[in-house]
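Q: what sequence does this backbone want?
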């Protein structure tokens, strides 16, 4: 979907127009007949977020009412959702091009609405012979936005699309070696986009560790999970280190890259396996967050550590009762091969920790327990020695409406991870607090301020959910981007 700024002329319409109507008084901009004014006014009174269609054959004017007295996070979210409803309507009616204008509307409201349109307009349809009708072009009234605002947001929204594509791709197309290649070429492409003075940029690097390198590093968690797979594992390291960075040490992002989670030898029963192509959403989100920061030149030094493999019962698959030696030397007794995410993440967190980051954040579709406890509205968040960053992340989460539920993270929970034969077990079978104990397992490997984000509930929607659509949602990327926009480094 192309987004551009232009003038909108109601006396010579060349496409349908969405009119964001935030004012109580009759519009001065939108030409309406008396009965239309009365009708829109009444609809507005009945429901402040109602939508009215005015027919101006062959085009239509979609009047979207909203409450301009509420320019807060909830009002903006309502606009995103209204945009999603409208996109559904356009899809049905075959509308491919619309203009957006309005009255009593401020830039952040316009941005939220267009964001909703863009995200709702996403389809994963590359394998469909018959594709849905989608918006191809959105023209935003040049009086309402500056081109810089549009450009920055469009780059972020394109990242959301790409992230969703990655998560939606099945493993038969997107295995670990392929995903690592794609991330590498994406990084190369960004580096090639020359800077203002026409030079190749030097602030972005991508290194891919292959099987041999992972073996020589003795990443016991990643290697064990990979043993049942036909494909090699990968470990991708990304670094964005801008000259004007505000932080003295990097922010380390870690993402779970399980390309497919069959459960391994503890194979997932019934229909629990479907949708497990999305088990690499954490890695996809973290790579995308770093790329978005780089593309928009945010002044934050960020690294990303992305362990990748699928989890399968093949070959010489790792088994319950195995005892692994992790990258940092910790030994782990396997109690269930389906608790694999924490094994590959443990190695990645321990590796990230060696870079002396000022903050580690991981994102992982880690536990079904998070879905059961919190549903699909919210990320389960936990922190160790990172009170302030967690508070800040919570605030930006409320702002962009990708919110966090902060769970307790007390040491006492470590009781549940005790092993008779090793330093820890990988999962406390049939026990309670599954999301917290998974987080506690990971926290063992972090010795710097650490935030754990369990995105199992939000990364992938089986049923259409407003502008997040159906399938991969991209949930979490706007959160991390907004966090980087506000980030000033940890000051201790
Ligand atoms: N990838 C799953 C978690 C998951 C479940 C994500 C549903 C999204 C939706 C993870 O690897 C897993 O299998 N977790 C197990 C842990 C159990 C064996 C302790 C779970 O949650 O059932
Ligand atoms: Zn699993
Ligand atoms: Zn998993």
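A:
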């Amino acid at each position: 979907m192309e987004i551009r700024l232009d003038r909108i002329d109601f006396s010579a319409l060349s496409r349908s127009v969405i009119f964001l109507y935030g004012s109580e008084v009759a519009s001065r901009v939108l030409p309406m007949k008396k009965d239309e004014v009365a009708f829109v006014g009444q609809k507005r009174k009945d429901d402040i977020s109602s939508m009215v269609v005015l027919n101006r054959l062959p085009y239509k004017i979609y009047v979207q009412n909203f409450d301009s007295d509420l320019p807060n996070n909830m009002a903006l979210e309502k606009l995103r959702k209204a945009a999603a409803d409208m996109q559904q309507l356009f899809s049905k009616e075959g509308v491919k091009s619309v203009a957006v204008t309005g009255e009593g509307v401020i830039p952040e409201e316009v941005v939220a609405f267009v964001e909703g349109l863009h995200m709702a307009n996403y389809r994963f349809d590359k394998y469909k012979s018959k594709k849905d009708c989608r918006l191809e072009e959105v023209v935003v009234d040049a009086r309402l936005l500056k081109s810089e605002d549009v450009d920055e947001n469009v780059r972020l929204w394109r990242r959301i699309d790409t992230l969703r594509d990655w998560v939606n791709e099945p493993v038969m197309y997107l295995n670990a070696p392929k995903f690592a290649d794609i991330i590498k070429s994406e990084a190369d492409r960004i580096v090639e986009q020359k800077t203002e003075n026409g030079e190749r940029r030097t602030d972005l690097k991508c290194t891919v560790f292959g099987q041999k390198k992972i073996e020589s590093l003795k990443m016991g968690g990643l290697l064990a999970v990979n043993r049942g797979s036909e494909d090699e594992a990968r470990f991708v390291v990304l670094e964005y280190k801008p000259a004007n960075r505000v932080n003295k040490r990097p922010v380390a992002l870690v993402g779970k890259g399980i390309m497919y989670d069959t459960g391994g030898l503890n194979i997932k029963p019934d229909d629990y396996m479907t949708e497990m192509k999305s088990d690499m959403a954490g890695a996809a989100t973290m790579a995308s967050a770093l790329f978005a920061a780089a593309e928009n030149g945010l002044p934050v030094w960020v690294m990303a550590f992305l362990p990748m493999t699928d989890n399968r019962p093949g070959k010489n698959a790792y088994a319950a009762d195995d005892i692994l030696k992790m990258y940092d030397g910790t030994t782990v007794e396997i109690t269930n091969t389906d608790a694999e995410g924490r094994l590959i993440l443990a190695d990645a967190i321990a590796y990230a920790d060696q870079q002396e980051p000022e903050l580690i954040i991981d994102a992982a579709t880690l536990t079904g327990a998070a879905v059961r406890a919190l549903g699909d509205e919210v990320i389960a968040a936990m922190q160790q020695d990172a009170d302030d960053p967690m508070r800040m992340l919570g605030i930006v989460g409320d702002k962009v409406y990708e919110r966090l539920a902060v769970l307790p993270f007390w040491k006492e929970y470590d009781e549940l991870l005790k092993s008779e034969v090793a330093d820890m077990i990988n999962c406390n079978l049939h026990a309670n607090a599954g999301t917290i104990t998974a987080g506690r397992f990971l926290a063992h490997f972090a010795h710097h301020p650490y935030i754990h984000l369990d995105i199992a509930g939000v990364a992938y929607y089986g049923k259409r959910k407003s502008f997040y659509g159906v399938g991969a949602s991209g949930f979490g990327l706007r959160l991390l981007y907004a966090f980087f926009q506000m980030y000033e480094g940890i000051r201790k």
